[in-house]
Amino acid sequence: MLRFLKTMQTKRNRRDSCGSAECAKPGKRGIEMSKTIKKIIAAVIVLAALGIYYYVTIPAVNIHSAGFWQCLLFFIAAVTVCYVLAKTRHSLRGKGGKPDLKEAFGSLKLAKAGIALFLLVLAVYLAGSVLSSPIVNASRYQKLLTVEYSDFSKDIKEVSYRTIPLLDKNSAELLGNRKMGSMVDMVSQFEVSSEYTQINYQDTPVRVAPLVYASPIKWLTNQGEGIPAYIRIDMATQNTECVKLSEGIKYSESELLNRNIYRHLRFRYPTYIFDDQIFFEIDDEGTPFWVCPVKKFNIGLFGGQTIGEVVLCNAITGECREYDVEDVPNWIDKVYSAELLTRLYNYNGTLKHGYFNSILGQKDCLQTTNGYNYIALDDDVWVYTGVTSVSGDQSNVGFVLMNQRTMETKFYTVEGAIEDSAMSSAEGQVQNLGYRASFPLLLNISGEPTYFMALKDGAGLVKKYAMVNVQKYQWVAIGDTVQECEKAYVKLLATNGITKSGASGIYEQAKGKIASIAPVVVEGNTHYYVSLVQSEEIFDVNVADMTLVDIVKYTVGDTVSFEYEVSESGLCSVVSLK
Do 282 and 113 contact (CB within 8 A), yes or no? Predict the structure, then answer.
């Protein structure tokens, strides 16, 4: 009995000792360790979420980036809300089921601190936006672009029709898709990108576009070898090529992971704010590159955007080189997007007398028209657009050319119809056919500023061409070919006393000593067939045209100068004799 009582006393003593503070210590340590693990897991989850967010959105870590400030505000708000909710939930449970008012009060103070930080950052962001805006910096915005006044007939030479881009972007897309459809070995795996960049390639206007993966599955099965080709379209001859590469394009917009061109650039240059548009170009050897302009902010935090640097990325190897905007290689044609250039010109044209004048009085306010096109001059690509008053009338006071590589801008005072009026005038000539005009290109035809445009059917195919005089937009010439259109237009100018009959706008020129000359009769008219020394061309001179009758005075060995066009038969039809 005594042994039993001692055993019970021993068990009671053990129970009493387990209720003491010493026995409770292991449990408390376990709870603290559990809390630490939870905090670590929470931190890992937050960091993982931030990492995924950064990988997907790839914002620039730069105070000049509006996206950076928006991410910062979101991060402050999210952390504050999550932390306060967790603390409040814990304090309401309290100890022993009773609310811990002291901890709840502390979480309230933390909430106030988080809100104060959020409001402070928001105030800096909003203040930076206002202080960077044209409202308080009108004169600085107006001076972002320097405009030179120039003479049209001197700067815009009479060009050969072989260098006139006859296609707009929509027509180029049709040709590119048609060409891709004929490539049976690639059409099931790849598509043509919609970004058709117009450049000068070996003194010829072309549009180039890379292929893209047709779907994520096609990317998965082909990304090892990369994209095998790109499309190149001659804008003058409409010749379309699928240029196959010995090594595939590894870095492109259609890549899904690290080789995506935007992600590749961001990881190499985390602080650079790249322009909204990057351009696919090829160098003189046909090697594909990505031209990636880097934004420069000249006014405050977010205002006065121009381009400060350019990153040139090899689309095959991913190798990148940086250039100051003044030092980019000459073969690069696009640094400034057309949208950026027209926006800068609108600042220059509307802010001459301050911001509020551009909204209210609008004295001396000029702006670009609602479209643009491209002109190739001196191996550069220039953006062309008309300039009109902000009142929205249907006339131009002139037009501007803006260099996409250097930002050089020239204004030409040429009063006339805006492009929309010229397009409507050309469409009126073929209204029975229902053709629609493309946005016009500006040419110098016989010294006259002339709108040149393609007329397309409902399927987007070019059917005819039109030339419209800028100053007299009721003067319209239509032709099935560029040559026919140009002939009709020159005759129209001559009929109205603007030029002499036979004056040339876009003809080829030849000069040399006569190697042989022979008269022949073609359909009852006498023609002279002439060949020049060191030339394989045969020149057809129709003496029925009285302006060419002086050819009968020439003989072998005499020096002669022609203006001509190549006919469908291959002969060079002479249109003027000098």
Answer: no
Taking only the tens place, the pLDDT of each residue in 490-501 is: 888 877 777 654
Please tell me the distance from the alpha carbon of residue 480 to that of residue 504, in angstroms, as a whole number. Answer: 19
- The residues with which 311 forms a beta bridge, in sequence order, are 292, 322
pLDDT, mean over the chain:
84
Q: Residue 336 corresponds to which amino acid?
A: Y
Q: Tell me the C-alpha to C-alpha distance, in Å, between residue 132 and each of 108, 274, 284, 307, 309.
A: 36, 19, 41, 17, 21
User: Which secondary structure element, helix H or strand E, spans residue 466, and what is its range?
Assistant: strand 462-469
How many Cα neighbours within 13 Å face the side chain of 190? 30
152 contacts 414 by C-beta, under 8 angstroms: yes
Q: Which pair of structure tokens corresponds to residue 389?
A: 């008053």
In 482-568, DSSP assigns E strands to 508-522, 525-532, 538-542, 559-566
Number of CB atoms found within 10 A of residue 280's CB: 23
Q: For residue 44, with 0-12 CB atoms within 10 Å meaning exposed, 13-18 middle and 19 or more buried, which class applies?
A: exposed
Report the distance separating Cα 229 and Cα 223, nearest Å. Answer: 13
- In this structure, the strands spanning 279-282 and 366-368 are unpaired
Could you tell me what percent of the chain has a pLDDT over 70? 86
Residue 145 is encoded by which pair of tokens? Answer: 């672009």
Distance CA 126, CA 69 (A): 10
**β-pair partners for 281:** 289
Report the alpha-carbon distance of residue 509 to residue 530 in Å, rounded.
14
Name which of 225, 228, 220, 166 is nearest 198 in CA terms.
166
Instruction: Please identify which residue in the block is written with the tokens 């706008």.
Output: 505
- The position carrying tokens 């000098």 is 578
Q: How far apart are CA 344 and CA 347, in angstroms?
A: 5
Asked if 563 and 507 touch (Cβ cutoff 8 Å), the reply is yes
Q: Is the Cβ–Cβ distance between 84 and 114 less than 8 Å?
A: yes
Burial class (CB in 10 A: 0-12, 13-18, 19+), 211: buried
The whole-angstrom distance between residue 100's C-alpha and the CA centroid of its chain comes to 60
According to DSSP, the β-strands at 409-412 and 380-389 are unpaired
Distance CA 211, CA 431 (A): 37
Q: Encode pLDDT of 399-453 as tens digits.
A: 999 999 999 999 998 888 888 889 999 999 898 888 999 999 888 888 888 999 9
Cα–Cα distances in angstroms (integers) from residue 131 to residues 137, 299, 349, in the given order: 8, 8, 21
| pTM value > 0.90 | no
